Amino acid sequence: MRDRNAAATFAVVVYDGVEPIDIGGTIGVLSMARRVLPNLEALTVAEAHGPVRLAGGLTVLADVDFASLPPCDQLIVCGGPGWRRETTNAAMLAFLRRQAPMRLASVCTGGLILAAAGVLDGRPATTRRLAVGAEDAAPLDLLNGLAPTARPRPAVVVDAGVVTGGGVSLAIDATLYLIGRLYGERVRDEIAAAIEYDRAFASNKSALGHFRQTDDTIVSN
Amino acid sequence: MRDRNAAATFAVVVYDGVEPIDIGGTIGVLSMARRVLPNLEALTVAEAHGPVRLAGGLTVLADVDFASLPPCDQLIVCGGPGWRRETTNAAMLAFLRRQAPMRLASVCTGGLILAAAGVLDGRPATTRRLAVGAEDAAPLDLLNGLAPTARPRPAVVVDAGVVTGGGVSLAIDATLYLIGRLYGERVRDEIAAAIEYDRAFASNKSALGHFRQTDDTIVSN
Questions:
Q1: Cα dist. B100→A26, A125, B115, B162 in Å?
Q2: Among partner residues A25, A43, A51, which is closest to B24 by beta-carbon distance?
Q3: By 3-state DSSP, what share of chain B in percent is helix, strand and coil, each rounded to 5?
């Protein structure tokens, strides 16, 4: 477990059509975490450096492109309606396949991009479990279409080396989980309380569960 | 109460040093809400159109400047460490004073900017109740320094015409509250469930409360 003064770098993978709540649940949580983890760095990475147009119309500027990403402790792939295009984007898939699986994570429908990249093959994994609005299928039900040997399960977070998180606001829970995996649960819980998410974190975990793979067994964590 | 096909425009007020979780909790919730409220529009407004550098380093592009904001049903002022500078920014304060109080809202330390603008005078109000990291005071304890006749209270949301929300992730709750005020609680709760925030919304309300001013009385809402 790292000391709270230890350095770590998280990269958040964005693309056109990411939901802005996924930016808030990843970059936003990491920004608040820096108040107690002073050497935690967070940056955004996209296929091209510069403007990325989010769902709903907000534009953010990606810090770096795939080729110029510095070494990272953790990459988190965001979700949002742009996920469909990314599952056939060769540059995105090649970028994800170059990463060490232990350093990969997703929030919401970002899990479907990891599925398309093949990095969920044989692993338990989650993504958004509910269809929203005009959708005719829940993303979780689409996972095996992209990764036939992945084992989908509803959850807040599934840690099978590759960490996948559940839908929408559960991006916050998944990012807190990743911070806890690196810096310990005590710091994680301190950050959850500071951002007024301690009640949500506990009630989500109780309702949907955190799961971790140990050898071939999935345990509630 | 508006029909779910009725139009509404929300503007989210941003400035250098907004916390990105406040973007997720406002613009992010509104973007997801559009999946069931097809004519809900959301845009970002800043003193100048274009790049705004958030806390933690992410840059977003503000859609419009103060002078070119179209008529809006609701303005929400974000929080973040940039709030201190904004409390003495004449352009920001004049902009807020030009708005009808019933259309003003804040999340997190955005409430301190409303306080400085004088729009919380005589009203109950909230803001982040916890000090985080190196802060030597909780924002809620600073409210009366900026608005001596405001009545600070810890809460998820205080609706005194001007709606103020609590800290950090409670931006999600405050935005859901505002959607409910306009479109009704049934649609609000549907959106909360769709974004997996129904458990958080209920537990936060139970722990910290939603309060509404009716005449001179504050009632739990």
A1: 34, 48, 15, 9
A2: A25
A3: 40, 25, 40
Nearest to A42 by CA among A28, A59, A22: A28
> How many Å apart are CA A22 and CA A36, to the nearest integer?
22
Smallest CA–CA distance from A26 into chain B, residue:
B21
Residue type, A41: E
What is the pTM assigned to this prediction? 0.98
Q: What are phi and psi of A12, to 5 degrees?
A: -110, 120
Q: Give B28's contacts in chain A (Cβ within 8 Å).
A: 19-25, 56
Give pLDDT tens digits for B115-152: 999 999 999 999 999 999 999 999 999 999 999 999 99
Distance CA A207, CA B145 (A): 42
| DSSP-assigned letter for residue B26 | I
Per-residue model confidence (pLDDT) at position A219: 86
At B61, the amino acid letter reads L
Q: Which residues of B3-19 are buried (b: 16+ CB within 10 A; e: fewer)?
A: eeeeebbbbbbbbbbbb
Q: Which residues of B138-176 are buried (b: 16+ CB within 10 A; e: fewer)?
A: bbbebbeebbeebbbbbbbbbbbebbbbbbbbbbbbbbb
End-to-end CA distance of chain A: 17
User: B199 and A194: CB-CB below 8 Å?
Assistant: no
